[in-house]
Amino acid sequence: MYRDLETLVRDAVAEDIGQGDVTTNTTVPQDARCRAVLFAKTDGILSGIRAFRLVFAYLDAQMTDWHALDDGAGFVCGDEVAAFEANARAVLTGERTALNFIQRLSGIATLTHRFKDAVKGLDVRICNTRKTTPLLRCLEKQAVLDGGGSNHRYALFDGVLIKENHITAAGGVGEAIRKARAGAHHLLKIGVEVTSLDEFDEAVAAGADSIMLDNMTLEEVREAVRRAQGRGVTLEASGNVTLERVRQIAETGVHIISVGALTHSAQAVDLSLRIRNVRI
């Protein structure tokens, strides 16, 4: 895990520059200044503006007259998302890295917003998963929040979630829950993934705090919700969650719907950076 965003940006910039930006350094005067404008070529929800700005700060772009939308803000095609005055070389050198951050993260926020909009009016949370880009998890989970979604556990250290392979290794649903309960401190809730109503019943009987209904049919999910009434257990639906069927899943009465696609399959938002008014 990166200690901070500045370290991540530094490493991302270094990956792209290597020994130097040959094209920019041979075509653009060292002291040239420009006006840089980031604008939208499609509709979306913004995320990653701090990382975008830090790229140019790290390159000592000497930015002035900065203004930008806030993360979580909506924009439409043609909107000016950010604008600033800066050293032209620094802008051109950092352009791709800065766009890679903000396009990727805005894509996640935008997709999350679409899922949230699809379940509008229903008492359910749309959550991300651990299916994130290595080393970008902190940014991608924040992008889900910017889109109006919720975070699942951050990583392996901050929550118990017993999955299929844990169940196999432990000797069954009930046995896995009992072992987790014995090994975890009293403030840590125990979650378990089940794939059938029989496993669901076993998880309830063993005292699971949260049960993930993985790739179950709508009829099975409805039945699980019925059986869980009065039990004080949190129900989460996961697996094959699409925009087309997420509302049907939400209408079953589950509390949480986890969507891995928010972070592993979000399409980058089309944003473009243009320089204007170059002054030498």
Concise structural overview:
With 280 residues, the protein is of the alpha/beta class. The chain is built from eleven helices and twelve strands.
Which class of secondary structure composition applies to the elements?
Answer: alpha/beta
> Could you name the CATH class of the largest domain?
Alpha Beta
CATH fold category name of the largest domain: TIM Barrel
**How is the largest sheet built, in terms of strand order?**
6-11-10-9-8-7
Give the averaged pLDDT, no decimals: 97
Gross geometry: elongated
Q: How many strands in all?
A: 12
Main β-sheet, in a few words?
A: 6 strands, parallel
**Count of domain modules:** 2
Please estimate the helix content: 40-55%
Indicate the CATH architecture of the largest domain: Alpha-Beta Barrel
How far do the termini sit from each other?
Answer: 41 Å
Protein architecture, described:
- With 280 residues, this protein is of the alpha/beta class.
- It folds into 2 domains: 5-111 and 267-279, Quinolinate phosphoribosyl transferase, N-terminal domain (Aldehyde Oxidoreductase, domain 3); 116-264, Aldolase class I (TIM Barrel, Alpha-Beta Barrel), CATH 3.20.20.
- It contains 11 helices and 12 strands.
- The strands form 3 sheets. A 6-stranded parallel β-sheet has the order 6-11-10-9-8-7.
- Strand 10, helix 10 (246-250) and strand 11 (256-258) form a beta-alpha-beta unit.
- Helix 1 packs across helix 4.
- It is elongated.
